[in-house]
Write a structure and sequence with these properties.
By secondary structure, the protein is mainly β. It has one domain (10-106): Sandwich (Jelly Rolls), CATH 2.60.120.10. 0% of the residues lie in helices and 49% in strands. The strands form two sheets. Strands 1-2-9-4-7 form a five-stranded antiparallel β-sheet, with no helix packed on it. Strands 3-8-5-6 form a four-stranded antiparallel β-sheet, with no helix packed on it. A hairpin with a 2-residue loop joins strand 5 and strand 6 (70-74). It starts with 18 loop residues before the first strand and ends with a strand.
Length: 107
């Protein structure tokens, strides 16, 4: 438990299925979720689409983002802005850590 309700300590979270869920949906209404993913060759984030807008921020490693069937190389510091219903996926030949945040807004 954090000493202040506005601080979520990553060190207090448990990684489940290659993700750390910060539970921000329980703290406010602007962000649907804030999750730190770890993607390896064994667990690609397969292309899919949905009604929510998302932002992905690459923390560490190199990855390939697939947007509407096109592949793009991404690395640390890159931000991927995903409108609703755009097919998207992410894979890595090594390992990449990245944040997935959705707005909670459906398109």
């Amino acid at each position: 438990m954090s000493e202040h309700k506005l601080i979520v300590r990553g060190s207090s979270l448990t990684e489940v299925n290659n993700r750390l869920d910060y539970g921000v949906d329980k703290l406010q209404e602007q962000v649907g979720h804030w999750v730190v993913w770890r993607t390896t060759p064994a667990n690609p984030f397969k292309p899919h689409k949905h009604a929510l807008e998302e932002f992905w921020f690459i923390l560490e490693g190199e990855a390939i983002v697939t947007l509407e069937g096109q592949d793009y190389a991404v690395g640390p510091g890159d931000l991927i802005c995903l409108p609703a219903w755009v097919e998207h996926g992410l894979r890595s030949e090594t390992e990449a850590r990245w944040i997935c945040m959705d707005t909670g807004r459906k398109g």
